[in-house]
Structures are given as structure tokens and as C-alpha cells.
Specification:
12 strands; alpha/beta; N-(1-d-carboxylethyl)-l-norvaline Dehydrogenase, domain 2; 46% helix; globular; 17% strand
Length: 332
């Protein structure tokens, strides 16, 4: 198996570690600082699924696709890879692990290099939020695009080190466009062999909207109040706001034809407080982490997506709108 990880953040390096461990040929596209750290110190994974170290010779790390392809041409001219790695750069899978606000750039750049997918390659979106698949569908045939639901928590204490901090459920792989799911089975098996459970599911849309409910309820409030998830569940005032967010999202889903695993907000809220929130009570939202790091957040694909869908369907979303605008102000 050959896989290209497009985006060397915490999720990208976490999934890369699984695939390398399972014996796949893996290349990573990341920022220059991350590439330098990976080439010098290799990739290290720690956390709840054990510790692993992979030397720089076990994978490739590149700052751009052009650099990767130049390296391919150089190796072919020299008669092959000196380290014995397979230098054929048509991938079985391209795993997009960028932030959601990077989807347009990623889709555009990857579409300029169609040779990377080979004959049967697939694109799998390991991203937060809603709307990423539609962006990629503007650049690729829909039957090449798959989605992953990830609710495993990753952090990156160093540029070449990823820590698995929390795990709520297996990684789910599927299609939003009704595509054949068989190509996802080898990827799920490889990720699972690498230490993080993964499986193929029939209706990944329900999983993605379940994650939208969770993230939209917690991420903006966690960033605004600068507190971990558990604190939001303890205070009556924040619970009321989260429940209002959830109710609005259910109204938007009903109006737009989207579904999740629960038919009413009350059903989801009970599961949210009893099962979903307790294992992650100490976690700080990625939105808060981005604000602290002075980076763009993914609020456009979270609360922003809910607001836009609500506007299109004529469904008011005043709570989601207010939280969205507050986070946008904090970004600025």
C-alpha cells in the first residue's frame, strides 16, 4: 500500500504512524519546519495506544508536491531509491489531513497533479466540519472522494512527535456520494494494524453530523470562555447555550435532508452528557488551541456551515450565528 498524507499536523502524523507501522509506503506533505524535524528525528508517536519511533528512512517528508515529484524524477534518473523504498509516486490513497479552511487550496493543488492517484487511487478527507467533500467534488470525480470521521484526540508536543490523548470511537471511513466502499477496507485494516481502530461504515454522513453536533456545541464556547469541555458541562448557563446550539442544528438537518444517529435533540443531548462529554472533559477545543497559537480556526466549517445551511433553508440559527461571529472576532 502507498499513501500520501497531505497535511502534517497532529491528525496527519497520527494516521501516518499507523500506516508506517502496518508496513505501508508513506510520504508526508507538511510545513517546512515539520519536514525538517521529521527528516532529522523521524516520527514519534506516544500516548494511550503505546509508543513508536520511525526513523527518517521509513517514510518520505516533503514541503510541497513539486518537491516530492522532483525527488521521484531524480531517483528514477539515478536508477531507483538508494534506501530501497518504492519510488513509484502513484498512490493508493491520498489522505487529506489539513484544516478545513485549507480544503480549497489542497483540492486545487492536488488536482494539478492527477498522476499522484494512479489508476485506482482514492482521496480520503480526514477533516473537521461540513462542506469539505463538496469542495473536492469541484475538482475531482465524486467516486474518488471519501470521508473519515475521527474522534480520536491528537496533540503535537514537538513538530515530529504526536501524542494520542483520547479515543472515543474507531475511525469511520465512508462515502457521502454513494460510492463503492470496498476500496476503504484495506485502508481501515492498515490503520487498525497500526494501533488505532478503524472501520468502514455505510452512512458516514450520520457520523459527520454527530461530530458536527459535538464540535459546534463545545468548540466555540470552549474558545470564548477558554475552558476545557468538562467545565462547559458543569455550568447551567453553558449547558443552556449548548442545548440551544444542538436544537438549532437538528432544525437545520431536518430542513436540509441531513440525518444523524438520533431523531431528536433530546435523544442526542442525553447521550452527549452521559457518554460523550465525560471521556473528554479535560480536553481543550482545537478552536481554543488555534486562537492561542494565533492561527485561523475551523469555525467556518463548523458553526459557519450551520449558519449558511440555515440561511439557505430559511431556518433561524441565532445562537450558532452569535458564537460564529464571536470566534471570528477573536480570530481577528
Amino acid at each position: 500500500m502507498k499513501a500520501l498524507i497531505y497535511g502534517g499536523g497532529a491528525v496527519g502524523l497520527g494516521v501516518a504512524s499507523c500506516l508506517i507501522s502496518s508496513g505501508a509506503k508513506v510520504d508526508v506533505i507538511a510545513r517546512e519546519g515539520t519536514v525538517s524535524a521529521l527528516r532529522e528525528g523521524g516520527l514519534v508517536r506516544t500516548g494511550i495506544f503505546g509508543s513508536f519511533e520511525f526513523g527518517p528512512e521509513k517514510f518520505g517528508a516533503y514541503a510541497t508536491l513539486d518537491e516530492l515529484l522532483q525527488d521521484e524524477r531524480r531517483h528514477l534518473q539515478d536508477g531507483g531509491c538508494e534506501d530501497g523504498r518504492d519510488c513509484d509516486y502513484d498512490y493508493d490513497y491520498i489522505l487529506v489531513c489539513t484544516k478545513s479552511h485549507g480544503s480549497e487550496r489542497a483540492a486545487s493543488e492536488l488536482s494539478r497533479h492527477p498522476q499522484l492517484l494512479g489508476g485506482d487511487g482514492k482521496i480520503v478527507l480526514f477533516q473537521n466540519g461540513w462542506g469539505n467533500a463538496e469542495i473536492f467534488a469541484n475538482h475531482f470525480p465524486k467516486d474518488l472522494i471519501y470521508s473519515a470521521r475521527v474522534i480520536t484526540g491528537f496533540s503535537r508536543p514537538k513538530k515530529n512527535v504526536v501524542e494520542v490523548t483520547v479515543h472515543a470511537d474507531s475511525i469511520h471511513l465512508g462515502s457521502l456520494f454513494g460510492s463503492d466502499l470496498a476500496p476503504m477496507a484495506p485502508l481501515a485494516e492498515a490503520i487498525s494494524r497500526g494501533g488505532i481502530p478503524a472501520k468502514v461504515v455505510e452512512d458516514v454522513e450520520k457520523d459527520l453530523w454527530a461530530k458536527m453536533l459535538y464540535n459546534c456545541a463545545l468548540n466555540p464556547l470552549g474558545a470564548i470562555f477558554r475552558v476545557p469541555y468538562g467545565v462547559l458541562g458543569e455550568e447551567p448557563s453553558s449547558r443552556e447555550m449548548m442545548e440551544a446550539v444542538i436544537e438549532e442544528i437538528f432544525s437545520v438537518m431536518e430542513a436540509t435532508g441531513h440525518k444523524t444517529h438520533w431523531s431528536a435533540p433530546e435523544e442526542y443531548t442525553a447521550v452527549f452528557y452521559e457518554k460523550l462529554l465525560p471521556p473528554t472533559e479535560r480536553h481543550e477545543s482545537s478552536t481554543l488551541q488555534d486562537i492561542r497559537a494565533e492561527k485561523a480556526t475551523e469555525i467556518e466549517a463548523l458553526s459557519g456551515a450551520v449558519v449558511r445551511l440555515g440561511e439557505e433553508a430559511g431556518v433561524p440559527t441565532p445562537i450558532n450565528w452569535t458564537l460564529y461571529k464571536m470566534v471570528k472576532f477573536m480570530e481577528g
